[in-house]
Amino acid sequence: MLILIAGPYRSGTGDDATKMAENLKRLEAPSYRLFQAGHLPMIGEWVALPVWNAAGGKTIGDDLYEEIFHPVAGRLLQLCDAVLRLPGESRGADNDVRIARERGIPVYFSLDEVPGCAQSAVA
Fold first, then answer.
1. What secondary structure letter does DSSP report for 42?
2. Burial class (CB in 10 A: 0-12, 13-18, 19+), 90
3. What is the CATH number that goes with domain 2-112?
4. Which terminus of the chain is less hemmed in, N or C, by CB atoms within 10 Å?
5. What would the pLDDT profile of 8-67 be if each residue is shown by its tens digit?
6. Any idea where the domains of the chain sit in the sequence?
7. What pLDDT is attached to residue 118?
8. How far apart are CA 101 and CA 51, in angstroms?
9. What is the reported pLDDT for 121?
10. Helix (H), strand (E) at residue 84
C-alpha cells in the first residue's frame, strides 16, 4: 500500500526550522518499517517542500506556503491506500484523517495496526 504518514510538522514549532526538521524526522521514523512490510511510505512534506522551494518559497506560512502545503496532502490522498496518523496535535494531520475517512481510506493510529507491521512476539 501507499501509506501517507500524517502527524505534526509545523504545529507547535513557532515556525522554528530546527523544530520543524525534528518533526519531519519523527514523521520519517516509521517509514523503514512500512517499507520492510512491503508498503511505500509517503509524507506530504516530501512533496510540498521541493515544490515550495522551486516556486520561490521564502517564509513559512506565507501565501505561497499555504497554496502548496495543504493541497499536497489532499492530492496525495487521491493516490494513497491508507493513512498512518502519528501522535501529536496537528490540524493538517487531523484534516488528512477527515479526508481519508470521507474517501473510505483506512486510517491507522499505530504502526502495529498496519498490515504486516505488527511487532513480533520475539524480542
1. E
2. buried
3. 3.40.50.10400
4. C
5. 999 999 999 999 999 999 999 999 999 999 999 999 999 999 999 999 999 998 999 999
6. 2-112
7. 83
8. 27
9. 34
10. strand 82-85
Cβ–Cβ < 8 Å for 6, 93 = yes
User: In the chain, how long is the greatest CA-to-CA distance?
Assistant: 50
Residue among 44, 36, 48 nearest 80 (CA): 44
- 3-class DSSP assignment, residue 3: strand
pLDDT score of 70: 84
Angle at 85 between CA 49 and CA 43, to 5 degrees: 20
Name the H helices within 1-123: 17-28, 31-36, 44-54, 63-76, 91-102
Residue 76, classified by CB atoms within 10 Å of its CB into exposed (0-12), middle (13-18) or buried (19+), is buried
> Does residue 5 sit in helix, strand or coil?
strand
